[in-house]
Design goal:
The chain is an alpha/beta fold. The chain contains 16 helices and 21 strands. The strands form five sheets. Strands 1, 2, 3, 4, 5, 6, 17, 18 and 19 form a nine-stranded mixed β-sheet that branches. It binds ligand NA7. Ligand NA7 is lined by residues 142, 148, 163, 181-187, 204, 206-207, 325, 346, 351, 374-377, 489, 494.
Length: 531
């Protein structure tokens, strides 16, 4: 049998790729990681925009595979900033001596399965071809920035930025007229900071998003010591919850609770801060009426914060809270009370065009020195489809996914033997704390490869039947959930022409883990294994 260059190639050196490398290397495999960036960190390498921060608390948004690591690393704030998370990723890379097996500044452009040799051949933009028995895509869920196709964007003479491709050198907006397009999680984090620096900030908002306060604060060493003393127990508890994030879940219906008690519960959670707000009642994401009680509470907070009732009206989100990802902010709404901030509603009258010196919206012209696109990502499938991936018989992933992603467990693809996707579509991924989800996938893949090697198999492939059944299950679970009821990036609705398929698995982290484990315990049900 032809010997490949490596046992496994991992694409991407974010949190998924780093741990995959460490895990497979400790099993004695020859592994190479290919990374487009010049450093590790993935999302946290690219998203350097002002105010970038994780919306999962730092003591939870971290690896748990090494107790030494989780004991020795100290976080400084309740919610870590992008620079701190990037430092953490770099620390992990050094601590486990990972960089010697990572090729940086190199992008994988194609991956082709050689059926006869049972080998993946990967081509890079540096003109190299590398081969491996297994190919593992650790390419991230939100790693392909999306810039809307607005007429004249290239004619603008000032600087343009995308939050997900932020420059490494400091960007100084002092004295400038700045336009920000987009008020999702990234815009909501960046806008308050940019407003403090810019001479004038124009925020071009198409939809108001629901956001809750972070109440970020420094992490007291004592509080951190307490968590570390019980880390194992805390992590286990978090893993037993649907999101894999530990926050109090109230197992009561909003509809059987009196209006006064409901208000109290929402107030308490509002004061605590963070996405735990949606844990206030157990039916918020299943019953539209229950959900509206939380949504109207948040709208009222917007009304209370804004000095100008017309601006408040525009900033009030409508529809289901939590349908699109709930944002977590620091002073977002209060920013619109500043004299140097103008909210421009582009819902009814969209941005018509960008010209050399600014933007045209209807009859108004906004002169700008810089434009920030906080316009999101081609989520979940974008990074995989950018690579020309071809499986058995030359079948292309782009064809297979023409009507939306299809995968078994979000981990493997029928027709693409020995290819794995970490937190791929069809897995809980973006509905969970990403790092534990990554760790679960990494361990599953590493154990699977070990199983193949120990039992003399060289090839594993999901069956079409198993994949069909999983896709049907993912869709069925989503159909009972309010999260599938609006146009969000979970559905591909933010990208023109992208098929509308609800991509992540919303059945909860513990249920998903149990299903993955059962499949293994029953001898890799739904997979064909061969020598
Ligand atoms: P999001 O959440 O996809 O937000 C993108 C924002 O950009 C959103 O407010 C969009 O408006 C807006 N947008 C996109 N295109 C346009 C045009 N053409 N005109 C006006 N406004 C536009 O991306 P983020 O980066 O904020 O967050 C992504 C995830 O990263 C987040 O969920 C976290 O998981 C971390 P819309 O709301 O669609 O009307």
């Amino acid at each position: 049998m032809t010997q490949p260059d490596f046992d496994a190639i991992v694409v991407g050196a974010g949190f998924a790729g780093l741990y995959m490398l460490h895990r497979l290397r400790s099993q004695g495999l020859r592994v190479r990681v290919i990374e487009a960036a010049s450093d590790v960190g993935g999302t946290w390498y690219w998203n350097r925009y002002p105010g970038a921060r994780c919306d999962v608390e730092s003591m939870q948004y971290s690896y748990q595979f090494s107790d030494e690591l989780q004991q020795e690393w100290d976080w400084t704030e309740r919610y870590a900033t992008q620079p701190e998370i990037l430092r953490y990723a770099q620390y992990v890379a050094v601590r486990f001596d990972l960089c010697r097996d990572i090729t940086f500044k190199t992008r994988v452009v194609a991956a082709t399965f050689d059926e006869a040799a049972t080998i993946w051949r990967l081509e890079t933009d540096m003109g190299e071809t590398l081969s491996a028995r297994f190919c593992i895509m650790a390419t991230g869920c939100l790693s392909v920035p999306s810039i809307p196709d607005i007429e004249g964007v290239d004619s603008f003479v000032g600087n343009t930025y995308h939050t997900g491709l932020w420059p490494h050198e400091e960007v100084d907006f002092s004295g400038q007229q700045v336009g920000v397009i987009g008020t999702g999680s990234s815009g909501i984090q960046a806008i308050p900071i940019i407003a403090e620096e810019a001479e004038h900030l124009f925020v071009f908002q198409r939809s108001a998003h629901y956001t809750v306060p972070a109440h970020n604060a420094p992490l007291a060493p004592e509080a951190q010591r307490e968590v570390k003393a019980r880390y194992g127990e805390i992590r286990e508890c978090a893993r037993s919850l649907p999101s894999g994030v530990l926050f109090p879940l109230n197992n009561t219906s909003a509809m059987v609770t009196s209006a006064e008690d409901r208000q109290q519960e929402y107030e308490k959670r509002w004061r605590t801060g963070g996405v735990g707000f949606l844990g206030a009642f157990n039916d918020l994401m299943f019953d539209a009426e229950a959900n509206e009680t939380a949504a109207s509470f948040v709208r009222e907070k917007v009304r209370e914060t804004l000095h100008d009732p017309d601006v408040a009206e525009l900033l009030m989100p409508h529809g289901v809270i939590g349908c699109r990802r709930l944002c977590v902010d620091t002073g977002f709404h209060a920013t619109f009370n500043r004299d140097n901030v103008t909210l421009v509603n582009v819902r009814e009258t969209p941005i018509e065009r960008i010209y050399t010196d600014g933007m045209v919206v209807g009859t108004k012209i906004y002169a700008l020195d810089a434009i920030v696109f906080a316009t999101g990502f081609d989520a979940m499938t974008g990074a995989l489809l950018k690579i020309d991936i071809r499986g058995s018989g030359g079948c292309s992933l782009r064809d297979k996914w023409a009507e939306g992603p299809r995968a078994y467990l979000g981990l493997t693809l029928a027709g693409f033997p020995n290819l794995f996707t970490i937190t791929g579509p069809g897995s809980p991924s973006v509905f969970t704390n990403m790092i534990p989800s990554i760790e679960q996938h990494v361990v599953w893949i590493a154990d699977c490869i070990a199983h193949l090697r120990e039992n003399g198999f060289s090839r594993i492939e999901a069956t079409e039947d198993a994949e069909d059944a999983w896709i049907a299950h993912v869709a069925d679970v989503a159909s009972h959930h309010l999260r599938a009821s609006c146009g969000s990036w979970y559905l591909g609705a933010n990208i023109p022409g992208k098929p509308r398929v609800f991509m992540p698995y919303i059945g909860g982290f513990p249920t998903y883990v149990q299903k993955c484990d059962e499949i293994v315990a029953k001898g890799y049900v739904g997979f064909a294994l061969s020598a």
